[in-house]
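[Automated response] Your request has been received and processed.

Submitted sequence:
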Amino acid sequence: MPVHLIRLITGQICLHACMTGLRLAAPLLALRSGSSPAAVGFLLSLFALSQVFLALPAGRYANRHGLGRPMRLGVVTAMVGAGLAAIWPVYPVLCVAVLMAGAATGVVLIALQRYVGRAVEGREDLRRAFSWLSIGPAASNFLGPFVAGLLIDASGFRAAFAFCALMPLACWALMRGTTELPPVDEPDDRSALRGAADMLAQPDFRRLLLVNWCLSACWDVHTFVVPLLGHELHLSASVIGTILGSFAVAATAIRLLLPIIAAHQPEWRMLMISMLAGGLILAVYPLQKHALALGLCSVLLGFALGSVQPMVMSLLHQITPEQHYGEALALRLMTINASSVAMPLLFGAVGAVVGAAGVFWATALAVSSGSRLAWGLRRLELGKD
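Generated structure:
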């Protein structure tokens, strides 16, 4: 892999670690300050709220300005948001901080994906580059919570927020000086809307979005409920961060092995196995009372869910006409982030009534039942024969 591509992916990890560190520290501080699960759910939903509305505009902004300007905008936004949390660690400021961090991460991610897609030539190199890109967020999902948890226990929440504010600087140092690619014509808004409507009219595309949504909800419930569960069990912040981080390590590991595994299994089968395994693990997760058992469940869930994004992207590419690929990616991103907004609110409301265990069990039932959607995608493989 070219050195400049490694630098870009490492920069992405640093910026994303700012958001994932906040994702642990902000709700944990809110819980320790006496906020309800519903308030924590609202706080977590703000990470994705801006990305629901920014997906298409951010893509057009990247078309006009390339990678450099979106990167600088994202770095400044993330630094200001996390810095505000370090100065005034109160609930309203935490809401502003997580909203800004989510927006910054989304803008930079879209610009980076666009840049790498244009910079890499050849199908094999493109597949390899996007495999590394999928590993980046998984790695930052370990780095952010793990370091933030250690800092909370050692020096308090202000230190964790300060760490989150400094990580975007590392992103800027790694990405600055990147050679811009020649500009392209900005897509027409009307044709983009028509392409999105055409994609939503396809039954297989809608089914794939639903599968992606179900598995994204599993990811969201784990991110949201583990701090709640750890708080109920009186676990330290570093232990909770390690549990969340072990999930990310497992998700990274399975993506490294995925090319070997996927060579012998079709995408629909991998997705169906992920849904069934995820449902089973979520069902037993709240029954565990010790940190080691929770960590084991986290690792197993990371293995189950880590393969989802590459499989979905592969199917998405197969069922989408090339001229509508951008619209399909935008719809997928908007669906995932809309889920990340709505699900924590729902989890918070349900958790306030039935507790953390009830949220796990409800999600386990939903994702297991949804495995029929992945089974329905098997006809895509049959259609190739």
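Summary generated for your ticket: The radius of gyration is 20 Å. The mean pLDDT is 80.
If you did not submit this request, please reply to this message.
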